[in-house]
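User: Hi! I'm working on a homework problem where we have to compare a predicted structure to a textbook description. Could you give me the structure for the chain below?
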Amino acid sequence: MSQRAGSTVPQFRIRVPTKIVDRLRGKRVLLSISTPDDYPFVRTVTIGSDVAFSLGTDDRTIAEARQANALDHLRRLFDLTEAAPISLSHKDMVALSGETYRLYQEIHRDNPGEPDAWMYHKALSRAALEGRIKNPPPAALMPNEANTAIELFGTDDLTAAVNTFPAGQHDALEDRFGLLADWVLIRQRIHLNPNDRQRFLRLVGTASLDAGWQLRRNAEGDYSPDPKAHRFPPIESVTAIKPRQTVSGLLHLWWAEAKATGRSQTTYDTYKGAIDRLVKHLGHDDATRVTEQDMLAFKDARLKVVTAKTLKDGDLPGIKSIFGWAVDNRRLTKNPADAVKVKAEKKIRTRPKGFTDQEAGSIFEACCSYVQKPKEDSRTAAAKRWAPLIACYTGCRIAEALQLRKEDVRTESGHHIFDLNPLAGSIKTGTYRLVPVHPHLIELGLLRFVADSGDGPLFARSSYKRVLDFVRAVVTDERVQPNHAWRHRLKSVSRNLGFDPRVVDAIQGHAARTSGEDYGDVSVFAMARVINAIPRIAKKPPAGSAEGVAKESGGRCG
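Assistant: Happy to help. Predicted structure tokens:
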């Protein structure tokens, strides 16, 4: 999706595969690419070496949905170009023609417009079906054909005017209904035998005419059921329409099972990102067509834009898991991703994994002095102010801090605690933990902030990246990760001060290292002793500080 210079409206553009461009060049294609929540958006495009048109909106969400729908339809067309033609029974073609009727209804059933528009639309369609006119305009999904109809038939009785033209004189089915017929066939992935084309055009034309009759009645205020809507056999009865195993479909099937077994939403989001990148690279979504060579080509393409570590740890685990699940569940016979091997990079470390004293102090100061920006959501501003500080004094992940709800900050065993709970969102281990609130956070005003907040989430759901960007603006060193640096820092501070490692692991949600350590529970009381002993972050750490922390009385933060 691109944006034309000087314009805020995104543009759709896709290159037509070289091997089929000559076969499709000049072909006109009907696109109906609005979503159920969008207003009708219909375009007719002409195939060249590429296809480009305006997406007609500056709303990014709507534009992305239209882009996805257009890509899907055109890629189906590209796939069909190389498919073998098939013949259909009369019943199957009637069932397919019902898609035309349903398309008109889907677009116009709530707002059918003016009755006259459908009157002219029907007149032109009937004249074409009966062979009374030549070179009619293509049947419009958004009819605006008054001028053409009046020029042909005048303004008197349309039925009588159409009947004055002799029937059977012209073959206008392709001109009038060809785009609609192609839309149905592309949508259902059917390369129809050319010998069946005329018969199918007539059925599509009749369905279009039926839809026009019903929409005219709707426009006049009559919404009674149309008996003709039930004349079409169900589309599922068409033997040529076989369920296609898509890559993205495998992801959804895997997730239905994985979610039930406790896999986290974060894992799904990571896997989905990898699958989306693979499908975009392939140019199709057919899992049965993915070969080992395709996967090797994907690896080569990704290594041009990401590191080997990102590919190995970010893309491949999800892709291999999804295809592996498909093999285990008899959806595929082979995992094509098994062909991809990426050697682990040699890790070179040139600084600590955790924030340094100076970095921690700078972030602390930035959080406490943060002022909400104009038009910024108050919960996003609160996330920037509090999430890094909560992570600092608990060693939790930033995402865990951001999904805290008002009810997750409460009193337990005489201590103020954070309830980091999977019910609020993703927890990597899938297990809740209660972590005491550090006294410094209380002095900074955290409990007052919680008390003043409404029920439910304390922070904006969409604030994760904004918080990381906020921290990255303070600590620009790319070698440290804003999400995990607090976790590393807490471990370092704990070792320096001789804290019980098992208690620190429990605070951070790390598993016991031995079976012996896993015996017994780590109580809130035990964790509170450790939390309370963590020295306070100083805005300006003293030079040469051995522990990297200094005591500070601390004022309110927000």
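For your comparison, note the following. The longest strand covers residues 10-15. The two ends are 40 Å apart (CA to CA). Good luck with the assignment!
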